[in-house]
Amino acid sequence: MDSEIPETGGPCGKTSTGDKYWVKTNPGQSFTFTCTPTASAVLGENPPSGLPAGSVGVTYEAFVYPVRLNLVGVLSASDKRLLIGQRLRAALTLGGFLPSGQTRYTWQIKGGDPFTSYVASTSTATYEGWGDRTEFTGSIEVFFADPDEIEVSCSVETITPSLQFEVKESLTSVPPTRSHSLEPVGKMELIRETSPQQYVVDLTDPTEFALWGAQYPQAPPKPPLVWGMFYDVWVTTPSPFAPPDYGSFAFVQLVSNASSASDGLGGSIEHDPAWGLDKMYPHSPPGWKAATPQAYVSGFPEFAVFSDKPGFRGLSSPAGVWIQLNVSDLFQLFDIYVPPDSAAGASAIVPLNRFVWKAVGSAYWSGSQWTRSDEGSTGLGNTMYPAHPVWSRVWVN
Amino acid sequence: MEQGLGELMGQYLSCVAIFMSLALQQDLSPIQVWPDALSSIARARIKADATQEPTGPRSSSARNSGTLASRGKQGVEHRSADPYPFSPEDIEGINAHHLSRGRAMEDAGRFLDDGLPVLAKARIESYLITYPWDDVVVPLLSDALFRLGMDAAAYELLAPRADRWAAPDLLLRASLAAAKRGEVYSGQKEYCVNVLAGGTWAEMRQAIVQSSVPTGTSPSELVLLSYLALGAGVVVHVEDRSLSYYLGKVLEMDSLNPLANRCLGDFHFRNHRYPQAVNAYERALVRARDPMKRIIQRQLETARYLRDN
After folding, report:
1. Complex ipTM tops 0.90
2. CB contact, 8 Å: B83 with chain A?
3. Shortest CA distance to A13 belongs to which of A49, A51, A55, A46?
4. Which candidate from A227, A319, A323 shows the least CB-CB separation from B64?
5. Structure pTM?
């Protein structure tokens, strides 16, 4: 694209000066341009005065203003990778070009699911996505939630001189290494607590109607661990993004709980099925864990197994009184990751995966015996790089 | 009357559960369910274990130890966020398992990098003696089998595990094993394309599909596409292991494949082999389309500069 400011100056015999501006896109290491007209001069005598006259000279001065889009936060100028969640600062430098008036910068990002902030606490979590924008500053800061090829472009409009040009840069957002091995989900069952946190299936004198039977296998001869469900994740920040700082990862779970209970004596429990945070942020245990290689800490990996056992507890079996229990809990379990900080600043949290699972079943005490059924408790699959979990309420139970 | 109330409430709650599930799952498409067709064929040959139905209710003697209390009082309490009480011994056992797996995968990966798939296979199989249920190592074991030319064994390993919930690294290898066997399923191609380019922006996706993805759905085209998804996916996922093997397979079938050459160029670039990177980028540009072409051109300029300076 070429653009210019017209020459200014006087008629022949006067000094004439002017500026011309060209925009050259992707000029490479060097480039050439030709100035016309070439200079010529005629010298002679002015007849009336006898003085010499007619001198003509053309002088050209050429400047180049290298306009660059600098990416801060990528590994290097030649290896433009950054981890998802790492902060990227894209800054346009005009290379000494000083336009007057207010310069407008229109920023556009393609790919990578960019966002500008994610703030989470136990009470609330908010997410603000990126939108293309026009600003009067030559830099932006942004995070990416998805691994992708990304193109950042900035269209610049200057008032004096009146120019418009666009600069583009590409980069790649990459994820950490994530390992996940099992996600067993049990069935709704009547169980009895025989000692603290020890349970057996008991259809005659249960203390809980809960999700049960998921097994976490152990190396023989150890028996498997048994609970309502398990989900394990190990996350490692790879080289060259780490060490020394590896970043960290954790679980967070949202729940929609439509369970209810009622009995023949007028007692009842109804739950608001609206989605909310399941009790704590991040979910603890295990809480935040360092995203270190598996053999990093004292020869052992960081321990990150999520487990849960939703249902009703505190059951009793009163003679002659009916009890109806309905469990209908839907869960979204996220593993979330915050990478090490980049040169551009602090990183943001990104979700790596969403595992949806449900616990559904009912139990009925007729006054003399229990019956129960599981109605489809199961895992409903994983989604990599899902939307950020947001919530505005927390369910304690 | 009491039973009727319970049934009514059960129906209402079931409706809520179904509605919520649908909201999350939406309709299943062939892209999602193609592995089910693959695994059902494989599983048909495996005699299913007898499933155990829950036993019926037991009669009990009457008790009068309490009643369901209204919310907020002592009695029945709905409870979520109820984690397993891991003992130090449990943690030690789990850590030992993951450490053992990590070492097995590291060793096997190194053997594959060194062109020793027999040792890689043996290393994973020895690990599976202790942890036979651990499917995380299945993709790596299948990599060794493919390199040994044991395609039938890879199929037997992968196909039964290929259900709609399986992870992409397993499903792409299952797609490869099935295509090598001459099996192509509805939705299989779309799944591979989705893994390859599903998450990127529209113009980039279009550029990848139009320049690099085979147009048909023949088994040989699905073999190429599966190789491409395995190789190109690895670029995005940082880990370089197996990348050059799978990309090499693509280039044996389509030497000017833009995406494979571009990924191979990136692989060489990251390992500071700039002449090889330049060659790969130049081959990628032959058929590349914008915006992929634009990005490759910039990378080529950088690679040339680093090669020459």
Report:
1. no
2. yes
3. A55
4. A319
5. 0.81
